[in-house]
Design goal:
Layout: E1 2-8, H1 13-23, E2 29-36, H2 42-49, E3 53-56, H3 65-78, E4 83-86, H4 95-98, E5 105-109, H5 121-128, E6 132-139, E7 149-156, H6 163-186, E8 190-193, E9 196-199
Parallel strand pairs: 1-2, 1-4, 2-3, 4-5
Antiparallel strand pairs: 5-6, 6-7, 8-9
Length: 202
């Protein structure tokens, strides 16, 4: 069974969708540990409610980012995770983790990469005036929001959309697309060929 370590910073709605999919048998895996850089993150409570180890690794307790990322990697290693899943993790993940889990770190982004990378993908797409945005699941590497794309789904922007209504629809897609992508990963159906990623059928 594939073991996931999930990194969060906030409320953990994507984490909840992953926990639910694992519990329902939709993912042939389990969340082994949830780690947050913020002690007040509600996602830690979601993890505890699901019987999952929940850890707060405080960046302020370390002299620099490298030491913090080393501690995160040690926590992941201690829980013997196979893949690292960023789910609303609002810190730049360091080489200490990325190099320990090459092509085994996944992230979700609320836009159709390579368009609108960064922390404000929904707002940036809305303000730019595009008619279609979406959700991207990708492998994370040293280049921010530029790793190989695993899955994408488009979300049209309606004429009467606001940033809030658009965000709500994007989150609905995230909560479906991320578990589906992780199910393919857990099944061994994700094949990386350079920048191209293929998902094999069952």
């Amino acid at each position: 069974m594939t073991r996931f370590g999930v990194l969060i910073s906030g409320s953990g709605t994507n984490l909840q969708s992953i926990l639910d999919a694992c519990a329902a048998g939709e993912i042939a895996g389990e969340v082994a540990v949830v780690i947050s850089n913020r002690g007040e993150a509600f996602g830690l409570e979601r993890a505890r409610d699901a019987g999952v180890h929940a850890l707060h690794v405080d960046p302020k307790a370390f002299p620099d980012a490298a030491a913090y990322n080393h501690a995160v990697r040690e926590a992941l290693d201690a829980h013997e995770v196979d893949y690292v899943v960023m789910a609303g993790y609002m810190k730049l993940l360091g080489a200490e983790v990325l190099e320990a889990y090459p092509m085994r770190v996944l992230n979700i982004h609320p836009a159709l990469l390579p368009s609108f990378p960064g922390a404000h993908g929904i707002r940036d797409a809305f303000e730019y005036g595009v008619k279609v945005t979406g959700v991207t699941v990708h492998f994370a590497n040293e280049a921010f929001d530029k790793g190989p794309i695993v899955a994408q789904e488009a979300v049209p922007i309606a004429e009467d959309d606001t940033p809030d209504t658009l965000e709500a629809r994007i989150h609905k897609v995230e909560h479906r697309l991320y578990p589906a992508a992780l199910a393919a990963v857990a099944d061994g159906r994700v094949v990386v060929e350079g920048r191209k990623v293929r998902i094999l059928s069952r």
